[in-house]
Specification:
single chain, Globin-like, DUF2267_sf
Length: 129
């Protein structure tokens, strides 16, 4: 999936303009890369558009940082310059869009490193919820 198409999908899922979707995508991928191992981040990067890969790159193959759901969303909101509720919708949209471009097993291998509350952002919201 091309970078522009990725942003369009995120914008539609999160109900935000394309420019905001771009900021949310970059912020979410950077925050995700901090929270998962360098190997898992590299595996995800192999599946996204070339322009998105730097956001999943880690300078060193260090251990992932440990932080919970609230800090994950705080970092996304601060990086994207959006309110907390927009950060939550955006992170959900980015992770769900990412799942569409990454092989199912590889995606869930990476998600398995996350706490359940963050991992739940990647799961489809049941209809009517």
């Amino acid at each position: 999936m091309a970078e522009l198409e990725f942003f369009e999908k995120v914008a539609a899922r999160a109900g935000v303009p394309p420019e905001t979707a771009q900021s949310l995508t970059e912020a979410t991928l950077r925050t995700l890369a901090e929270r998962i191992s360098g190997g898992q981040a590299a595996d995800l990067a192999d599946h996204v558009a070339h322009q998105l890969r730097p956001f999943l790159a880690r300078a060193r193959p260090e251990e992932p940082q440990v932080f919970a759901y609230d800090e994950f969303l705080r970092r996304v909101a601060a990086r994207a310059g959006v309110a907390d509720d927009v950060a939550e919708r955006g992170a959900r949209a980015v992770l769900q869009t990412l799942h569409r471009v990454v092989a199912h097993r590889e995606f869930w291998d990476a998600m398995s490193e996350l706490p359940a509350q963050i991992r739940a952002l990647a799961e489809p919201v049941p209809r009517g919820a």
